[in-house]
Each structure stands twice: as structure tokens, then as C-alpha cells.
């Protein structure tokens, strides 16, 4: 088995007596871009700072190419780790030009100018080398920070909320460019963000954190279609839970009808379960006997996201093509087209799950 570039083994770290990250274990493969994703305060930035060497750890270990960088007893200095870092605020030197910023970490290389010129060309700033940071846009400053972090040829690149200061289309475009740059050079990287769209667009593997605990380390596809916990189901994407009962090992009976899953589930026959339905699991079907009333809609260009209510009062969301133009109050036909049916053992009351979206169900369960 190939040694991972980065390995976190039962990592624990915090501040004083407060444990922020608890028993975190992940492996990042050579050339992959990983991500730590989660809400504010979940421990993702603390983990990134521990990998960089800025924070000590109280348990477990951090390994780079199989060699320990941090344990509870020993910590390699940040400058000796062969790790580059792109900070949230870019941290550029205002008194240095763009070219001088990029070359700052190259102290002895005889090819310093060649490396700087090559990186500036790679990040599409080859004509701006003599400018200063204050003369650049936010997106250009981000490119300078990326080039500077890559200049010493690190084994691992860390990016802390790198696009959070950018807006809309620029954020989307630059995140795609950064992925292309890292992939073109085969650079392994770890990104921290709270934005799942950003994580999905850039990263090969994503770890969802909650209160310092890793909920799931997986591909974006699996996180969306095969969430390991109700929290992952809630945090990733949109959706609603509805109540069902196991009719067979791969079949569940719900108010939407009998739905067959894509595997044998561990819950016994007859047991109550919560069924996760994403907006793309429901499709419009004018001939279906299952009817719902439109109570709200969000136009999204190619699609329209409808909030629907069944006769029982259960609310769901569904994505229709935008030419299927329905207004609040209209009745529509539905059918379930869930190829990746996700079930969890039932929690809370039937009415609670019938009425509330995922995040409200989770909050209610935690306070019960």
C-alpha cells in the first residue's frame, strides 16, 4: 500500500483544557486535494494550524510521507515541514513587489528568477511582477499568495478559507483555476472551508467535522448520495426526512408509496426509519396518483426548486426543469426516483419529521 502524503492518526488538540479536535484520523493520497468542511467552531482551522505546526497536539500524530511531524511529545518547527500555506487574508508583504513576494521563500536557489517567472505565468500574473499588493484586485492577490506558497516546492499545500474574501462568480472561477493549477503540478493540498459548493468543486476527498469529531471522510459524490450520519445528510445539500417502516430488507413503506432501495439495510422488517429525500429524488409526473400542492418556488435558471406539501401536511422539495412552470397553489403529480435511498433508524416523532427540514429535525433531536 502506498504511503499517504498526509496522515492524521487519532489527532487531538485544543486550547488549555478545552479539546477542540478529538480522535481525528484521515489519509490524504499523493496528488489529491482534500478538504475539512464544517460549520464555524467545528475544529477545521485548528486542525489545519496543527498540520502547519502552528499549534501543538495533545494526542495522536501528524505524519508527512510516513515521518512524524507532530506527536504529544515532539513537534517539528513549521519552517522545517516542507508545507506551504495560503492564509485567509493572503498575508502578502505590502512593501515587496509581486515578484518579490513570490520569490520570498526561495533563499538559495540559483534559478530563483526562473521559478518566479514560471509561477507568475502559471497564475496568469506574468505582466504584473513589478506591481505591489495594494495595486491588485482580491483575485490577483489570491493568485500571488498561491504562487508564493508553491515557490519552495512544498510536499503539501494548506489553504485556509482561501476564497472567503471574494464574491460570487470570481469565487467560483478562481476556485476552479486553483484546482487546475494544483492538478497540473501534481501538488497535494488540504483546504479548509465552510462552503460545501467550494469543497465539492475543488476537492477529491472531503472530511465533514462536527464539534471536533470526524463524521465522514469520503468523495463529494458519496457524501451527497451516501451520508454516514444524519448530520452529514443535513449539512451536505438540501433535503427532508420522511417517516417510513421497513417492509423488507431493501424496501420501505412511506406515505409516498413503497420505495425500494439499492441495497439490503441493517434495520429489521417492521422497524420505523427516517428516509432522506433530496430535491432531485422527486420528479414531476402528471400521470402519477401522488399529488402535492406548490407552496413556494425558487427559480434557478435551468431548474426551479419547488417546496411542496402533501395532503397529509408533509413538506418536501423537488427540482423540476424550468419549463415546468408552476405557481403557488398549483397541484402537481410526483413520483420518487431515488436510486441512492438513504435510511437512518427513526428518531423523534412522526409529525416532527413530517413537517421539518433536516437541520430543524437534528436540532429538535439534540434538545430532546
TrEMBL record:
Q: Which CDD domains match?
A: ABC_Carb_Solutes_like
Q: Which GO terms describe its cellular component?
A: ATP-binding cassette (ABC) transporter complex
Q: Which InterPro entries match?
A: AAA+_ATPase, ABC_SmlMolc_Importer, ABC_transporter-like_ATP-bd, ABC_transporter-like_CS, ABC_transpr_FbpC, Mo/tungstate-bd_C_term_dom, P-loop_NTPase, Transp-assoc_OB_typ2
Q: Which Pfam families match?
A: ABC_tran, TOBE_2
This one is known as Iron ABC transporter ATP-binding protein
Any one Gene Ontology BP term? quaternary ammonium group transport
GO terms for MF = ABC-type ferric iron transporter activity; ATP binding; ATP hydrolysis activity
Superkingdom of the source? Bacteria
Source organism of this protein record: Halopseudomonas pachastrellae
Entry keyword set:
ATP-binding, Cell membrane, Ion transport, Iron, Iron transport, Membrane, Nucleotide-binding, Transport
SUPFAM superfamilies, sorted: MOP-like (SSF50331), P-loop containing nucleoside triphosphate hydrolases (SSF52540)
Keyword Membrane assigned to the entry: answer is yes
Q: Where is the ABC transporter domain?
A: 6-236
Amino acid at each position: 500500500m502506498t504511503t499517504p502524503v498526509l496522515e492524521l492518526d487519532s489527532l487531538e488538540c485544543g486550547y488549555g483544557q478545552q479539546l477542540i479536535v478529538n480522535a481525528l484520523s484521515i489519509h490524504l493520497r499523493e496528488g489529491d486535494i482534500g478538504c475539512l468542511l464544517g460549520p464555524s467552531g467545528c475544529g477545521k482551522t485548528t486542525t489545519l494550524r496543527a498540520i502547519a505546526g502552528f499549534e501543538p497536539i495533545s494526542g495522536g500524530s501528524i505524519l508527512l510521507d510516513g515521518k512524524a511531524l507532530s506527536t504529544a511529545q515532539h513537534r517539528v518547527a513549521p519552517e522545517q515541514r516542507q508545507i506551504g500555506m495560503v492564509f485567509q487574508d493572503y498575508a502578502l508583504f505590502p512593501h515587496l513587489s509581486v515578484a518579490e513576494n513570490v520569490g520570498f521563500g526561495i533563499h538559495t536557489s540559483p534559478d530563483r528568477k526562473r521559478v518566479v517567472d514560471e509561477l507568475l505565468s502559471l497564475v496568469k500574473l506574468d505582466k504584473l511582477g513589478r506591481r505591489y499588493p495594494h495595486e491588485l484586485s482580491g483575485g490577483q492577490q489570491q493568485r500571488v499568495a498561491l504562487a508564493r506558497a508553491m515557490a519552495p516546492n512544498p510536499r503539501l499545500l494548506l489553504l485556509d478559507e482561501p476564497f472567503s474574501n471574494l464574491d460570487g462568480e470570481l469565487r467560483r472561477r478562481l476556485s476552479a483555476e486553483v484546482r487546475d493549477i494544483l492538478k497540473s503540478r501534481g501538488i497535494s493540498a488540504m483546504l479548509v472551508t465552510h462552503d460545501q459548493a467550494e469543497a465539492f468543486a475543488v476537492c477529491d476527498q472531503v472530511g465533514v467535522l462536527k464539534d471536533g469529531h470526524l463524521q465522514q471522510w469520503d468523495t463529494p459524490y458519496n457524501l451527497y448520495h451516501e451520508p454516514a450520519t444524519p448530520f452529514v445528510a443535513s449539512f451536505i445539500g438540501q433535503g427532508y426526512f420522511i417517516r417510513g417502516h421497513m417492509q423488507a430488507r431493501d424496501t420501505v413503506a412511506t406515505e409516498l408509496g413503497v420505495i425500494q432501495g439499492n441495497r439490503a439495510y441493517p434495520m429489521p422488517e417492521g422497524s420505523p426509519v427516517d428516509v432522506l429525500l433530496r430535491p432531485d429524488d422527486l420528479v414531476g409526473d402528471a400521470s402519477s396518483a401522488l399529488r402535492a400542492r406548490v407552496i413556494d418556488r425558487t427559480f434557478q435558471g435551468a431548474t426551479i426548486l419547488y417546496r411542496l406539501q402533501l395532503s397529509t401536511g408533509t413538506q418536501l422539495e423537488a427540482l423540476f426543469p424550468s419549463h415546468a412552470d408552476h405557481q403557488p397553489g398549483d397541484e402537481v403529480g410526483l413520483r420518487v426516483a431515488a436510486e441512492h435511498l438513504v435510511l437512518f433508524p427513526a428518531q423523534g416523532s412522526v409529525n416532527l419529521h413530517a413537517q421539518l427540514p433536516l437541520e430543524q429535525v437534528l436540532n429538535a433531536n439534540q434538545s430532546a
